[in-house]
Amino acid sequence: MDPAEERRNSKSQKDHINMLSYVSDSEYGIPRRCPCGGRIIDEIRRKDDYDTLPGKRFFTCKNYEADGLHYRQPWVIGVQEEIERLTKRVEEAEEVMLGASNLGRHLDRLEEQVQFLCEHVDLLTVQVATLEKVCFD
């Protein structure tokens, strides 16, 4: 084989292997679109298609081929991963909300301190004015 052709062939194989890993890494949750750009359909296995587990559901690429470059994910797994993702988002939102309530309390304390310090500054201003009158009279 020609060395240039061999390089092209190995590069093509490497690109194909990389694409397979990209597809498998991206298959998480409920897929919206297949990496090929195909629409995801809700597939339900019929009794004729398979002897066991009739009615099993899949998220499947409309252009599905068993080449590893298209999605065909069991419905249960996709929904479970999506629930885990949404649960994590809810927990993060709860943390933010708790942090916001803590910030509100902290802000109230700071406002009280500012009010106290303003009163103290007013008192000191009166005392300085009094001392200036005494010293310069």
UniProtKB/TrEMBL annotation:
<feature type="coiled-coil region">
    <location>
        <begin position="76"/>
        <end position="127"/>
    </location>
</feature>
<protein>
    <recommendedName>
        <fullName>Zinc finger GRF-type domain-containing protein</fullName>
    </recommendedName>
</protein>
<keyword id="KW-0175">Coiled coil</keyword>
